[in-house]
Amino acid sequence: MPVSPPRAWVEINTLSLKHNLEFAREVSGCELMAVVKAGAYGHGLEAISRVLESCNVAFLGVANIGEARRIRNAGVQTPIYLLGATWEKEREEIVARDIVPCISTIVEAKSFHEIAKRLGVCLTVHLAVDTGMGRGGFLPDDLVEKLDELSKLDGLRIEGIASHLSSSDEDESFTLQQIANFDGTVKKLGGIDAFKWRHLSNSGGILGYENHCCNLARPGLMIYGVSPIPGFQEKLRTVMSLKSRVTLVRTVPAGHSISYGRTFVTTQPTRVATVGIGYGDGYPRHVSGKNAEVWIRGKRHPIIGRVTMDQIIIRLPDDSDIECGDEVELFGANISADEIAKLADTIVWELFTGITPRVERLYI
After folding, report:
1. Does one domain contain both 69 and 153?
2. Low-confidence ranges of the chain (pLDDT < 70)
3. Which residues pair with 241 in a beta bridge?
4. Exactly one of 187, 260, 290, 299 is catalytic; which is it?
5. Is position 41 annotated as part of the catalytic site?
6. Which of 37, 224, 243, 279 is catalytic?
7. CATH of the domain at 39
């Protein structure tokens, strides 16, 4: 049977990804743990992990064992780090696959120790410190008290220590406090020589702050082409472009309503185009009525009416030469993802990860 070209797709530029990764390496002065959770921020978990493996990153950071399993099944051998606490039913697979977990409690540590001893292995782990994020990790003073007990668990090899910045793109004072707390905790636990890996900084931390204690950084959003801190965007290259096609062009009369709810009604005969993408593809419905635009044939054109599940409608100039099949950029090199996220009252992280599976990923 014939196979049609996609109606909605994202183009992933892997050269731009590599450029952004090297910029993160240069700015941080550290080895890198590339964060690929949530399908590599919607860019495609397996494909992006393969590209990053070729760039010699120290770790790939994931949210859960399911993501780690997919990476291993794709043949990627780069060490994988679990960025959050684990549930007891996940731990045996984590040990069996030699995935590196972060440890937040003595109970979690003992559970991993017992499984590792039973399987006859020594599991590499990192200790998580809660310096103010609040979603996991030992409190700094508790970790200092528990270190001797943790060190006696010979089924575990404590190789790293980590924390996470909660507000690196919003609150400089608190971020500096977190960095100081982490540095102080490392010092109390024996200093930098006590841990092979010491990591704290996300993209905002890499771009906005110096941290002399760490030798590993965890870039996420910035390697996908978006800076969480103003002033650095020009240093990064766009990786993802969301695209679709014009499916219909016509002229509607004055007084004609457009899309659900009749939120837009024409005041004169109006040239309009229908585009084959909607919130069912991950383009946010919340940009409706907020002057969002798309890019066609080198120009911006406004969306009118509500974004629907599968289609949007745009207004064209009367003399437009746009026709069916023309390529439409929803965001990318010409309309930034950050612009669309702000119109939708959300963040770029959610916009990227909200692109649905029916949108084909094309790697260029």
Report:
1. yes
2. none
3. 11
4. 260
5. no
6. 37
7. 3.20.20.10
